[in-house]
Amino acid sequence: MVFDARLLLASASPRRRELLDQIGVSYRVEPVDVDETPRPGERPADYVRRVAMDKARAGWARNNGELAALGADTTVLLDDEILGKPVSSAAAAAMLGSLSGRTHQVCSAVALVQGTRERVVLSESRVSLRVMGEEEIARYVATGEPMDKAGAYAIQGLGAVFVAHLSGSYSGVMGLPLYETVALLHEFGIGTPLTRGQVRDGAA
Ligand SMILES: Cc1cn([C@H]2C[C@H](O)[C@@H](COP(=O)(O)OP(=O)(O)OP(=O)(O)O)O2)c(=O)[nH]c1=O
């Protein structure tokens, strides 16, 4: 239990907790469940922003009205097609096969809600994975790491061995773009240990 938190993290993701811990932000965790089904014809960037905002709104609704609620969503896009979390080992292997030797996009949105105040920011990255053989894909899938990850890999885990190039935000690919997150937190008057002096209302 964190007592001095000014932020509610509307997420069950251990990666998002780890990333907020990394920059020294205190928060209380409140996982939420929102519909993550893309709407017909919805542009991927709009989809990611909408889901992040829905998570933040759901977090705010569970709150006692004191803490700003943060929601985030991360999606992998290959040729503008959304690759979500794999539903099975076979789906994970197929996803990795389609990403092998190619460059894909990772879109991460972070949203903050405090009452009627709502803001969402998008981070877009490009990641090139090297060619992966069938056997190494099978070995990677057998580790279990791909299963709860958009695009079936984790840049912060064993999957790092496949990442040939990244242009954009490492933390965004991992699930919470920290530069954008800190900018949003500032807008809402929430500082970090390093940036607290720059926040309008002082205390972090
Ligand atoms: C591409 C990539 C994704 N991921 C993860 C980040 C996200 O947690 C996940 C995408 O799923 P999300 O729906 O964004 O998040 P989540 O279900 O894990 O958590 P919550 O909705 O409760 O906030 O994929 C990695 O951890 N590493 C990577 O390299």
Automatic annotation (TrEMBL):
SUPFAM superfamilies associated with the record: ITPase-like
The enzyme's E.C. designation: 3.6.1.9
Compartments (UniProt record): Cytoplasm
Cofactor: a divalent metal cation
GO biological process, one term: nucleotide metabolic process
GO function terms (MF aspect): dTTP diphosphatase activity; UTP diphosphatase activity
InterPro entries registered for this protein in UniProt: ITPase-like_fam, Maf-like
Active-site feature positions: 73
Pfam families: Maf
Residue numbers marked as site, Important for substrate specificity: 15, 74, 156
GO cellular component, one term: cytoplasm
Catalytic activity line of the entry: UTP + H2O = UMP + diphosphate + H(+); dTTP + H2O = dTMP + diphosphate + H(+)
Family of this protein: Belongs to the Maf family. YhdE subfamily.
Protein's UniProt name: dTTP/UTP pyrophosphatase
